[in-house]
Design brief:
CATH topology of one domain: Methylamine Dehydrogenase, Chain H
Low-confidence stretches: none
Subcellular location: Cytoplasmic vesicle, Clathrin-coated vesicle; Late endosome
Family: Belongs to the VPS41 family.
CATH class of one domain: Mainly Beta
Keywords: Metal-binding, Protein transport, Transport, Zinc, Zinc-finger
Shape: elongated
Helix content: 40-55%
Oligomer: single chain
GO biological process, one term: macroautophagy
Strand content: 15-25%
Mean pLDDT: 82
InterPro entries: Beta-prop_Vps41, Clathrin_H-chain/VPS_repeat, TPR-like_helical_dom_sf, Vps41, Vps41/Vps8, WD40_repeat_dom_sf, Znf_RING, Znf_RING_Vps41
Length: 727
């Protein structure tokens, strides 16, 4: 009823096979090529299924499943069947080896996955050296006719019975081929297919078988009338299904991922079908966007798709995605798109001109088209701005500059800089200043070598307010460059920018002071007049003006402090003596510059002075503070002097090393005698010069203090005798 051959039967020394029936017989080829049978098992009913893998033989009989180890010739396990109510001849056991040590058992509606393991040496005793462990066990919905492994999943051929509502009788349905993922106590269904075979209504569970070819991943479903071959679906099948369901994007993605393995399909064909599908659905923008990825660098396909979009009136949709470099399409394509925008969308046309390089299309044709449209609408700013850009691409910068200035466009300065158009703007300086004086002045000052200062001032002669802006910026950059215009700037500052007049007068060394004084006096500019009087040496008049015109005692005091002139303080005191507020201000600030007694003696008796007490207290506090500072400084000076004196005394009291290397500065012989027993006398000065006593010249002075002759001769200061050594 069943045969299983040795896995390596083709090799001459493995000529073995087993047969099933009432007994399990092993046949081996022996002497003279005769087959010798031996009984492996009997007595438990018919052996209905046998599978041989490696050194293990598994078989199923009426009682259950057994496994035999051919090496030890021992039976290592017995797996009993679960549902003994099922007839074993009607619902036979299905066996298959997943690998050399994993057996899959299907019987009735139960699946068990068994693993053969080595027994530990300490557990051997009289037991086989291998044992079996059930690692997965679960029940299925239908009866199992066959099973096979596929990766880490299982393929199960199921015998199905269903209840007929018409006849109210249970009948046979089409067999099912399921793929399941085993779990420890259950399973997860991955896929399920019902198979149409002839005569399935009359078949029983035992009539179906499932075999598989491990190397080819082919599965054979065998029924009494049909043999069905099943194989795993590949990416081509998957892409076919996706295209059938109109899931083009997923099909394209799947083709890109598996482009090396697919055989039926091409990525480009799928992509073109996807574009056509999107166009049919009316999703023009998405279709145009996908063209970038799908069409790539194929110029013929690009041009074909552009014409297709033109036919359906959707050139605008594809325009943002047209290639601009590598590849570049024919100029006619780009011109066609530009004409489409020019007829209906000026803003879109301007955007394309700005984004597209000028060499993509025939510039002359587009310029003429824009000029024709401007005849109908000459004041259209969008078309004028676009025409200026086209002139720029065509290197007609003069015309572009005229349009930009007319439009007062912000790009006018960039255009001038980029293309060095300074010769074209010599007579357009006023227009540039009116448009943006700050940018215009910065540009003119940055390019003085191209447009001179004199030329700019001359052009702005009739616009003094703009002339002032230019000269002010020039003065800020360099106080000396525009010195010939400093006299003119006095009037310009006075007229248009008084806050900056005083800083200008302070920083300028070229403006005529008399002229400036005249203008400031005419306009009654007090602060500027005070500064000019002071700068011209008339400090007393300046101080008088502060006191009479400004009546600001603090400023008057500050002015007197700056000049530190006794006459100015005298004038300030005389002017303030009859003005109590001024006296208060003087008392609060005069202490450190003038003796306060001079002011206090002149105050009239009975005059009421606000905050007099506080002012006098402040004077006394300031005086007391000065005394304390002087005493503190004196203490610090005395302490430092004493510390340094002690340090000098310690230094001079230290000994000086004298050895054989030292010489007498007079006779240049060693300072110490070679014979240590002889008597000697040595003089060492603080300057470290050394002499023999007999070599030292006799001093002519009355004082007994001696000085180093060498240091005295070099005017380095006399060194008095530090140490005299005698022996």
């Amino acid at each position: 009823q069943i045969v299983a051959v040795h896995p390596h039967f083709v090799r001459s020394h493995f000529k073995q096979f087993v047969t099933g029936g009432k007994k399990l017989l092993l046949y081996e080829r022996g002497w003279m090529n005769r087959w010798k049978p031996s009984v492996l098992h009997e007595g438990e009913g018919n052996v209905r299924n046998v599978k041989w893998r490696g050194h293990l033989i598994a078989w199923a009989n009426n009682m259950g499943v057994k496994i035999l180890d051919m090496i030890s010739k021992q039976r290592i396990t017995n797996v009993p069947r679960d549902d003994i109510s099922l007839r074993p001849d009607m619902y036979p056991c299905s066996l298959c080896w997943k690998d050399n040590l994993t057996l899959i058992i299907g019987w009735g509606n139960s699946v068990k996955i068994c693993s053969v393991k080595e027994r530990h040496a300490s557990e051997m005793r009289d037991l086989p050296n291998r044992y079996v462990e059930i690692v997965f066990q679960f029940d299925t919905e239908f009866y199992i006719s066959g099973l096979a492994p596929i990766c880490d999943q299982l393929v199960i051929l199921s015998y199905v019975k269903e209840f007929s509502e018409k006849t109210e009788v249970e009948c046979c349905a089409r067999p099912r081929l399921d793929i399941v993922q085993p779990l420890p106590e259950s399973c997860e269904e991955i896929s399920s297919d019902a198979l149409t075979v002839r005569g399935f209504q009359e078949n029983e569970c035992r009539d179906y078988h499932l075999e598989y070819s491990e190397g080819e991943s082919l599965f054979y479903i065998i029924s009494p009338r049909d043999v069905v071959v099943a194989k795993e679906r590949d990416q081509d099948d998957h892409i076919d299904w996706l295209l059938e369901k109109k899931k083009y994007e997923e099909a394209l993605m799947a083709a890109e991922i598996s482009q090396k393995t697919i055989k039926k399909h091409k990525i480009l064909d799928i992509g073109l079908a996807y574009i056509n599908h999107l166009v049919e659905k009316g999703e023009y923008d998405l279709a145009a966007r996908k063209c970038q990825k799908i069409l790539g660098k194929n110029t013929e396909l690009w041009e074909f798709e552009v014409y297709k979009f033109k036919e359906i009136g959707q050139l605008k949709a594809i325009s943002p995605y047209l290639p601009r470099r590598d590849p570049v399409l024919k100029p006619l394509i780009y011109e066609m798109v530009l004409h489409e925008f020019l007829e209906s969308d000026y803003e879109g046309f301007a955007t394309l001109i700005k984004e597209w390089p000028g060499d993509l299309y025939n510039n002359t044709i587009i310029v003429q088209a824009v000029v024709d449209h401007l005849k109908k609408d000459p004041q259209n700013r969008t078309l004028l701005r676009t025409l200026a850009e086209l002139y720029t691409y065509d290197q007609r910068y003069g015309r572009a500059l005229e349009i930009y200035l007319t439009l007062r466009h912000k790009d006018v300065f960039q255009l001038i800089h980029k293309h060095n158009l300074f010769s074209s703007i010599r007579d357009k300086i006023v227009l540039l200043m009116d448009f943006d004086s700050e940018k215009a002045v910065d540009m003119l000052l940055d390019n003085e070598d191209k447009i001179s200062i004199d030329r700019v001032v001359e052009e702005l002669e009739n616009r003094p307010e703009l002339q002032h802006v230019y000269l002010h910026k020039l003065f800020k950059r360099d106080h000396h460059k525009g010195q010939r215009y400093h006299e003119k700037q006095i009037s310009l500052y006075a007229e248009y920018d008084r806050p900056n007049l005083l800083p200008f007068l302070r920083d300028s060394t070229h403006c005529p002071l008399e002229k400036a004084l005249e203008i400031c006096q005419q306009r009654n500019f007090v602060e500027e007049t005070v500064y000019l009087l002071s700068r011209m040496g008339n400090s007393r008049s300046a101080l008088k003006m502060i006191m009479e015109e400004l009546q600001d005692v603090d400023k008057a005091i500050e002015f007197a402090k700056e000049h530190d002139d006794g006459e100015l303080w005298e004038d300030l005191i005389l002017y303030s003596i009859d003005k109590p507020p001024f006296i208060t201000g003087l008392l609060n600030n005069i202490g450190t510059h003038v003796d306060p007694i001079l002011l206090i003696h002149r105050i009239k008796e009975g005059m009421e002075i606000p905050n007099l007490r506080d002012s006098l207290v402040k004077i006394l506090q300031d005086y007391n503070l000065q005394i304390l500072l002087r005493e503190g400084c004196k203490k610090i000076l005395v302490a430092d002097s004493l510390s340094l004196l002690k340090k000098m005394h310690r230094t001079q009291m230290k000994g000086v090393l004298v050895d054989e290397e030292n010489i007498c500065e007079s006779c240049l012989s060693p300072i110490l005698p070679s014979d240590a027993s002889k008597s000697f006398s040595v003089v060492v000065f603080h300057c470290r010069h050394m002499f023999h006593r007999e070599c030292l010249p006799v001093s002519n002075t009355v004082s007994s203090v001696q000085f180093c002759n060498i240091c005295s001769a070099k005017h380095r200061g006399p060194g008095s005798a530090l140490l005299e050594m005698k022996k």
